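Exam review. A common question shows you a sequence with its structure tokens and asks you to describe the fold in words. Practice with the pair below. Do the first one on your own.
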Amino acid sequence: MRFNKQPMRFPSPLRRGRLVKRYKRFLADIVLDDGEAITAHCANPGSMMGVAIEGARVWVSVHNNKKRKLPYSWELVEIGKTLIPINTSNPNKIGFEAIEAGVIPELTGYGEIRREVKYGEASRVDLLLDGGRRDKPSYVEIKNVHLSREPGLAEFPDSVTARGARHLHELSRVAADGARAVMLFIVQRSDCRRFRPAADLDPAYAEALQNAVSAGVETLCYDCEVTLSEVVLRKPLEIDLKAR
């Protein structure tokens, strides 16, 4: 099932290689299939548990912008037979395009979508939906999910995220004030059937998620179909809030 009518496409044809190592959070040394050794930008500040595996097959995009320090960007890794995008900014684009195309049923009926709107004490919500047929606005936070330590199970986060917990507190306040508050998890892989918070990696986040749901925050989780040219929102996953 393919929902998204406007998929997130990679910026250029991808080149394949092998990961040598990921380091300093934003750098990755890679040997391309033709033998060229490169350093690519890694747009993922997290731990990348389970996806930054030395020797794994990876794909990079190539950029001609002379202002960039690095012409290559690490885009995909293959784990087993599954392609996984590593760029944590992808889900915001995927979510925006999917909502705009009307393919997330829970978030249809709005007339306007705004990005990065200030709210709460010191936060910016990823998407603010307003107008249309809906009688109240919807504040939507989006989180990237790539961790899977158990067959069929997607998990978030892959390391401690105080920022993620803060966003849940902000959403809880939004719900208390009478607006819709939505936590949307986008799983950038296609081999999972359900989602659960990784309470063993960040118990504070798992507790904050439980509390947010009790406070009226809605939770949604969708996976993606991933190819060498695009990432497409695919189907909803079952959400299990029980602690690991």
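Now try the second one, then compare your answer with the model answer below.
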Amino acid sequence: MSAKLEPHILVVDDDPAVLALLQDYFGANELRVSVADDGASMQEVFDREAIDLVLLDVRLPGENGIQLAARLRERASVPIILLTGRAEEADRVMGLEMGADDYVVKPFSSRELLARVRAQLRRVHMQEARPLADEARAYRFAGWELNLRTRRLTKGGGAPVELSNGQFSLLVAFCATPQRVLSRDQLLGLSRLHSAEVYDRNIDVQILRLRRQIEEDPSQPRLIVTERGAGYRLDADVETLR
């Protein structure tokens, strides 16, 4: 059996210390890293290698990171994370508008940056498998109705149940894939919990809170069941309204 290739990250920064740090840290965490210090070398690496994600410093000599992000977005859908300074709010906003997917402020935590990189990689990995939930307008299951347009969860015509953004996103993911076991990584991707809620164990907390909202007895869940060692599954038939 052939070994699975590690995700390949391109780091574009003109600070040798940053390049060395991220090469070492990402390499120790099962990521391949290529580096570039300006737009021309970035293009050379991008033409030569299959890149999974680009980390792009905003302040670069010559073309800045905003311009390079726009050029990258024209040719590929690869995730782009901007590295910005604390006082560069306008650049962050413009970068996101030009197609960047996320940003991290310098000086950054290597652990947080790794988590954001992994979150973006999960998102891309799950896009092919993600159900077309946008085509649905509501889901019905076990007497519940989840309206995707109004974000309302009701049962039997009763008062709406208050759901946090995370709980709503998780419930949509479960309803779109009923009776299917979903791992934590899959739930992170399907529910798009990839910014502040990037850590896997946060899924367990969100599941616990969601069970308290929809289960008759949260200590003995019958709807969102645990598949030990594998993940979670919505044990209900789901009707999709379009």
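Model answer, second protein: The longest helix spans residues 110-127. The two ends are 43 Å apart (CA to CA). Full marks require stating both points clearly.
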